[in-house]
Amino acid sequence: MVAHDPLPRRNPETVVFEARTWPKGTFLSQLSVPDRTRLLRLGVLHSLGPQRALVRQGDPAGSVWLLIDALVKVSARVENGTEALLALRVSGDMIGEMAVLGETVRSATVVTCGRAVVCQIRGEAFVGFLQRHPTAALILNQMTIDRLRWSNQRRLDFAGYAAGQCLARVLLALAGRHGRPCDMGVDLGIPLTQAELGGLVGAKEDTVQKALRALTSDGLVSVAGRRRVVITDLARLTEFADLH
To answer: Could you read off the pLDDT of 50-89 as tens digits, one per residue?
Structure first.
């Protein structure tokens, strides 16, 4: 029988977040209420402005971060200086756990997209939590598997489809996770430059620009400004992406 640790003393700053509803599929959404409460009370809340780095590629591991009210971009730079957007994380997600659990340096840089509230938990405290709560450890393991599947799917898309279809598949995946209805169709809900879309697709910026122009010309998407993409015909874009 696993001995559960008693609930830490309530931190007034974190009480409001303990029983709220979290986005589906995120780490906090899958924890039981008691485990979520224990985990949140291990941390300290921080309020951050936009374009603040939570972790930087190459830095030593230290803390893990729970995203309370935040949207962040995960990117990495390769040896030739090229930087690629690897993923997006939203409220309820966790970042930084791979370096803490693997006792390695940070493999990516994580930057806030706008104002954010995050919960910082010391690495050793987080590891101790997982040791005492094996169900939470299993949930974290499943989350890691899901992220690997996402990465593998993007590699398969790149190998099997032209750039336009790869872009369409990524846009649909983002809309499924983060999109919101609008007058024109479905707004991706995330401000992304064409270079950042290229990072997710595995294509250069000029290739993404050409693919977006084609999708716009066909009436499948609309590009408003440098960072906003709206899917204007969801059914036809799904058909074009070869998703059924």
So the answer is: 889 999 999 998 899 999 998 898 988 877 777 778 888 8
194 Cβ contact list (under 8 Å, min separation 6): 205, 208, 209, 212, 226
CA distance 49 to 201: 28
Token readout for 112 is 């806030």
- 148 vs 124: which has the higher pLDDT: 124
**How far from each other are the two terminal CA atoms of the chain, in whole angstroms?**
46
Q: Over the chain, what HEC string results?
A: CCCCCCCCCCCHHHHCCCCCCCCCCCHHHHCCHHHHHHHHCCCEEEEECCCCEEECCCCECCEEEEEEECEEEEEEECCCCCEEEEEEEECCCEECHHHHHHCCECCCEEEECCCEEEEEEEHHHHHHHHHHCHHHHHHHHHHHHHHHHHHHHHHHHHHHCCHHHHHHHHHHHHHHHHCEEECCEEECCCCCCHHHHHHHHCCCHHHHHHHHHHHHHCCCEEEECCCEEEECCHHHHHHHCCCC
**What is the rounded CA–CA span in Å between residue 100 and residue 182?**
40
The count of other CB atoms within 10 Å of the CB of residue 90 is: 19
Q: What are the tens digits of pLDDT across the range 97-142?
A: 989 998 788 999 999 988 899 999 999 999 999 999 999 999 999 9
Per-residue pLDDT tens over the stretch 163-205: 899 899 889 988 887 888 999 999 987 778 888 888 788 778 8
